[in-house]
Amino acid sequence: MKTEHIKPWQWLTDLLIAEERGISDRQIGLEVERIAIWKDGSPFRYQEDPKTGKPGAEKLLNQLHEAYGWKLVESLPSRPIGLETPHGKISLEPGSQLECAVLPQKNLVEVANHLEEYDRQVDKVVQAWEGLIFLGIAVNPVHRNDEIDVIPSPRYHIMTDVLGKTGRYGTTMMRRTSSVQINLDYTSEAEAIEMLRVALLVAPISTALFANSPFLEGKPTGFLSARAEIWRNTDPARTGLLEEAFETGFNFDRYSAYLWKMPLMFVQNAQGDYINAQGCSLADIAGGKLPGVEINPTNMRWSIQQCFTEARLKPGYVEVRSVDGQLPQYRLASAAFWMGLLYEPQARKVAFELLGKLSAADREGLWNETSRNALKTEYRGLKIREVAQKLVFASLEGLKKRGYGEEAYLTPLVENVKLGLCPADRILEKFKTDWNGNVLGIVKGEA
User: Fold this and answer.
1) Considering the domain 10-262+307-443 in this protein, what is its CATH number?
2) SS3 203
3) How many of the other CB atoms lie within 10 Å of CB of 361?
4) Which pLDDT score is estimated for 6?
5) What is the pLDDT at residue 2?
């Protein structure tokens, strides 16, 4: 009797299959990160600034806990790094960027209601501080890396060490960037792979539509999305446009095999402590190259979390990662755009028709160009503004079919595409005029 060989990454494959949703059970999840800065230009730190006495993210979390009874989440004793709230999980990114991961909702109207109430509650606490501003922008426009401390989280300190060696901007990504991430459920393996491929194909167009990070250390960078350039220079082993997803026969098993061989930054040992993975993959760990560490569900889930490609599979959903941090109206516009595009089969077909013949090198080249020039990009005969218009229209039609009125959130995007502008274009215009070339004008404007 022949025994079927079980692949070592089978647990990951089975997890992706087990979390498939029914169409009627589909929801949307949204993760919104925000960078804070003081009006006088000083950085928002984790702890109270010893020189100025300005409070930090630690105190903000404690005051939100006291004001609303939200449960504190700690990484180290008496060192909060997050909160559990009725709206979803609040957490700190490594440089004290404040993230809200909204609980998945049936439609974008419900997501918007939660985000609006969350913003109101946070702003009410912050108002008493007189001078802290949350920026609707994707890269800290003022501060150097050494001016921003890393929050007290063992895994973030390991990541600082690892990413400090893998790419020119690895630690910049951690400390100085913010994004909007959109999570959309899949109903089958075939649909998941199709959604993932569309999310990767359209990532350069998404970069163009939502480019919102033209500055670094007080100066224009030449990129309308400096955040995209930062990610390209973070860690080539876990970032980018996931060329493997376009290979014939790519499926959950092939994705799991990719994760199995991907170098890890950190894992947990038998005691649950975070340790540096020393560049080992799950395959290396299975081969005994990292003593004291086991292949278990916890460490296999960490492989899913440590894949930072522009779109990735997670159990039950596709996560879109190609959107810069935004002002409120663009957060919802980005969620609406991607929901209409990925949840509607006809819209996915439009995306393939427009971009499906691009080679891996073309996709990479296009991403680079849209990071610089956004909707003004022309690349190998493609006029990105025209491509973006067709994709926005396809998304609009997909949202109309859903019947929740979510297409209204696309209004600022429709206007921008008509004018050929992205959010960064508008910010740069203010920089040159209203702000007189001083990036600190950002704390007085809408960004």
Assistant:
1) 3.30.590.20
2) helix
3) 9
4) 87
5) 40
**Is residue 60 classed as helix, strand or coil in its secondary structure?**
helix
CA angle 246, 213, 304 (to 5 degrees): 40
Mean pLDDT of the chain: 96
> What is 145-166 written as a DSSP string?
GGGSPPPS-HHHHHHHHHHHHH
**Single-letter code of the amino acid located at 230:** I
- CA atoms of 442 and 447, how far apart (whole Å): 6
- Comparing CA positions, the residue from 148, 147, 170, 143 lying closest to residue 159 is 170
279: left (phi over 0), alpha (psi -120 to 50) or beta: left
Contact assessment for residue 200 and residue 311, using Cβ atoms and an 8 Å cutoff: yes
Chain centroid to Cα 195, Å, comes to: 17
Is the separation of the CB atoms in 141 and 427 below 8 Å?
Answer: no
What are the φ/ψ torsions at residue 256 (nearest 5 degrees)?
Answer: -65, -40
Closest listed residue to residue 45, CA positions, set 90, 97, 81, 117: 97
Phi, psi of 170 (to 5 degrees): -60, -45
Question: Would strands 382-383 and 378-379 be described as parallel, antiparallel, or unpaired?
Answer: antiparallel
| Nearest-angstrom CA–CA distance, 102 and 89 | 7
Q: Evaluate whether 304 touches 260 at the Cβ level (below 8 Å).
A: no
| pTM of the model as a whole | 0.96
Reference 329, options 249, 241, 212; nearest CA is 212
Spatial CA neighbour of 234 closest among 299, 314, 176: 176
Burial class (CB in 10 A: 0-12, 13-18, 19+), 109: middle
- What are the residue ranges spanned by the domains of the chain? 10-262+307-443
Biggest CA–CA distance in the chain, Å, is 79
- The single residue listed with the structure tokens 């003593």 is 291
Q: Is 414 helix (H, G, I), strand (E, B) or coil?
A: helix
Predicted confidence (pLDDT) at residue 444 exceeds the cutoff of 90: no
d(CA 122, CA 140): 20
Question: Tell me: the pLDDT tens digits for 13-53?
Answer: 999 999 999 999 999 999 999 999 999 999 999 999 888 89
Q: Which amino acid is at 177?
A: T
The pLDDT-based confidence of 446 (bands split at 50, 70, 90) is low
User: How many of the other CB atoms lie within 10 Å of CB of 3?
Assistant: 5
pLDDT(447) > 70 = no
- Residue whose pair of structure tokens reads 């950002």 in the numeric block: 442
> 415-438: b or e for each residue (b if 16 or more CB lie within 10 Å)?
ebbeebbbbbbbbbeebeeebeee
Length of the chain: 447
**Residues 6 or more apart from 301 whose CB is under 8 A from it?**
none
Contact indicator for 200, 360 with CB cutoff of 8 Å: no
